[in-house]
């Protein structure tokens, strides 16, 4: 079955977890401001262009006028652009995943479940896009007040001397 048919069927169906049509609208994103949010779902994959590891985080606004609305935030890992990689790793850290855990697991699929159930603050900033004024840049910054029950050093697999974090990071 073609992926477009699967998506069309999903939009027509309200799943067991109570997803509404609005929740499938990938075009919605919040206005600039601060929101109390929770992670509804996570997935892992790769970016379309560079095939960089990516974690998709489905956020739901928990309070205020937009309560119940959801949007996807993609966090790209280990990108060729060190500044972008630092920002995105910072997002994971702000969401409660320890830096050593990120590097020790070194895999988007292993890291993604650590974000499930996180609750915290998201600050959204919309900035003009000179190339396409109708599609502004949207940056999201997370506050570390959330809780991630399993994101701890306990999630780090045992390390032997030849597999140190320093070696993994390429220092």
Q: In words, what does this structure look like?
A:
The radius of gyration is 17 Å and the shape is globular. The protein has 5 helices and 5 strands; from the N terminus they run H-E-E-E-H-H-H-E-E-H. The protein has a 5-stranded antiparallel beta sheet. It has a domain of 115 residues. Strand 1 and strand 2 form a beta hairpin. With 171 residues, it is of the alpha+beta class.
What's the story with the biggest beta sheet?
5 strands, antiparallel
- Summarize model confidence as the mean pLDDT: 74
**Helix and strand succession?**
HEEEHHHEEH
| Helix segment tally | 5
Distance from first to last alpha carbon: 46 Å
Share of β-strand residues? 25-35%
Describe how the helices and strands are arranged:
Elements: H1 3-12, E1 33-46, E2 53-61, E3 70-76, H2 82-94, H3 99-105, H4 108-111, E4 119-127, E5 137-142, H5 165-169
Antiparallel strand pairs: 1-2, 1-4, 2-3, 4-5
Feature tags:
23% helix, alpha+beta, 171 residues, five-stranded antiparallel sheet
Summarize the structure.
It contains five helices and five strands. With 171 residues, the protein is of the alpha+beta class. The protein has a domain at 32-146.
């Amino acid at each position: 079955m073609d992926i477009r048919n699967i998506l069309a069927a999903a939009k027509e169906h309200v799943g067991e977890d109570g997803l509404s049509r609005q929740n499938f609208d990938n075009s919605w994103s919040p206005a600039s401001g601060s929101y109390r949010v929770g992670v509804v779902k996570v997935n892992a994959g790769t970016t379309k262009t560079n095939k960089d590891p990516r974690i998709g985080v489905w956020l739901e606004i928990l309070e205020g006028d937009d309560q119940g609305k959801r949007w996807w935030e993609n966090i790209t890992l280990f990108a060729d652009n060190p500044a972008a990689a630092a920002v995105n790793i910072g997002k994971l850290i702000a969401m409660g995943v320890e830096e050593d855990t990120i590097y020790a697991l070194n895999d988007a699929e292993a890291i993604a479940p650590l974000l499930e159930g996180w609750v915290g603050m998201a600050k959204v900033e919309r900035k003009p896009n000179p190339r396409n004024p109708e599609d502004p840049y949207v940056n999201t910054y997370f506050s570390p007040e959330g809780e991630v029950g399993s994101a701890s050093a306990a999630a780090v697999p045992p390390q032997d001397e030849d597999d140190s974090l320093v070696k993994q990071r390429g220092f």
